[in-house]
Amino acid sequence: MSKPELLLLVFMVIGAFIIPFLTRFIQMPNAAGEIVYGLVLARIFPGYLSHNLEFLGELGFILLMYLAGLEIDFERLRKTKAQELWVYIFLFLSIGIFGFFSSWILNLPPLFGVVFLTTAVGLLFPVLKDSGLLHRSSGQRLLLIGTIGEIMSLIVLTIFILYHKYGFSSSSIIHLAEILLFGLLVVFVLKLYRYVTWWFPQLSKLFMTSENTFESSVRGNLVHMFIFVGVAALLNLELIIGAFIGGMIFAAIFSAKEDVLHKMGSFGYGFLVPLFFITVGMKFNITDFFHIKVVWLALIITSLILIIRLISSPLLLIVGFSTREILATSVALTFPLTLLVAIATFGLDSGSLNKSQTAGILLASILTSVIYPVIFKKLAGKQA
């Protein structure tokens, strides 16, 4: 690593440490602040984002998607009535239909349909905690809806990636079948492992606890993650899809994952994930975000993300939601910051989006994460 690269890495790490204190003061999500910091670094170190530093950012991206899969609470899904689950699934099917229709009407690339559909719980969780709703039934229900939305969003993104690479062809079906077969094989192996650890419980400590000095749970999960990443590479898929599927399967098999999630989250969110968001910002010139075309697109995305959910959410009347709860739910599903950044990054790297469209999505991800949580907290205050 050259001296300029090392100097830039020092500034990136310093920023990753300082930014959470600044964003907490100005009420901005950490990821949004890290993107802005990356924009600033790009002005100070123009052209210094090397392959080595991009590799660290990509590694953070992979770990972020693994954590997204790992954070899914399948135990909550198992305890929910089938009728309620189907209503939530149809809610996101409706959001998806309106989302892709909106992108078609506005003559935007198909990937924008995924943008309008995307839902994530990464920012919803702390917002619910701040609102005092996290441990209430209404908060748990919102987390469940957000979880279903996140799963469906990533499934649609996976299908879109297959379509982008192979179109509607037999190759797409073959690759999708390969993913499903591999997933079923891993589920079988992990269930077998679960059965074996029932007889020999000390073996579960290799993946589930960190009472040893060499942090076997972290190492075991990294092995698990990179196996799926490697298989994704062999299947010519995006590496992030392999990482997400790996995390999701681990979460589906092991319900007692709090220690693993804490350890992996501390490692990821403490170092590699912030570097990913900073490198995303460094790929742009800060003036790109002030072009009227980019600002206008960001405002359209920000508005439509909410409007589409408001149109679809009356379906929740079927499971007894009040009008105020429907409104609050619509707003609660409007700030998928991390996944919007992930989609924008994929779109730029794959050529599905041009630079101004990507900048518009990134700006919208920041706007939705700053504006809508404030609105939700006000609605949540009225419900309390």
CATH topology: Na+/H+ antiporter like fold
Oligomer: single chain
Distance between the termini: 54 Å
What is the annotated CATH architecture?
A: Up-down Bundle
Alpha-carbon Rg, integer: 21 Å
CATH class: Mainly Alpha
- The total number of structural domains is 1
Number of helices: 17
Strand content: under 5%
Largest sheet: none
What share of residues is helical?
Answer: over 70%
Number of strands: 0
Mean pLDDT: 83
Order of helices and strands: HHHHHHHHHHHHHHHHH
Structural class: mainly alpha
Low-confidence stretches: none
Concise overview:
The mean pLDDT is 83. This protein has helices at residues 3-26, 30-44, 51-70, 74-79, 82-105, 111-117, 124-131, 137-166, 170-199, 205-208, 216-234, 239-253, 258-282, 292-312, 323-332, 337-350, 355-383.
In words, what does this structure look like?
This protein has 384 residues and is an all-alpha fold. It has a single domain, classed as Na+/H+ antiporter like fold. 78% of the residues lie in helices and 0% in strands. It contains 17 helices and no strands. It starts with a helix and ends with a helix.
Task: Please outline the helices and strands.
Elements lengths: L2 H24 L3 H15 L6 H20 L3 H6 L2 H24 L5 H7 L6 H8 L5 H30 L3 H30 L5 H4 L7 H19 L4 H15 L4 H25 L9 H21 L10 H10 L4 H14 L4 H29 L1
Helix pairs in contact: 1-2, 1-13, 2-13, 3-12, 3-13, 5-6, 5-8, 5-14, 7-17, 8-9, 9-12, 11-12, 14-17, 15-17, 16-17
List keywords for this structure.
single chain; 384 residues; Na+/H+ antiporter like fold; 17 helices
